[in-house]
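INTERNAL TRANSFER SHEET
From: sequence group
To: structure group
Subject: Anti-sigma factor NepR domain-containing protein

Please process the attached sequence and return the structure record in the designated field. Keep the field labels unchanged so the import script can parse them.
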Amino acid sequence: MADSRNNTKQAQVIDENLKRVYQDMLNEDVPDRFLDLLSQLKAQDTDEGDEGETAGAVRRGEGA
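Return from structure group:
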């Protein structure tokens, strides 16, 4: 019976520590290199979206 209580207590301590570490990681800032990469990808998506609209207008005869 004592072993069962010890295992339960150990599991609770491990659970609490894992939750604390995970919460700490969630509160960390995103590294600048990732933010830069996201900006580059967003810019590419915007450029491709603009090109797609222009190509569609040309196909419809709306622009050159």
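Handover comment: Residues 2-59 form one domain. The two ends are 82 Å apart (CA to CA).
Transfer complete.
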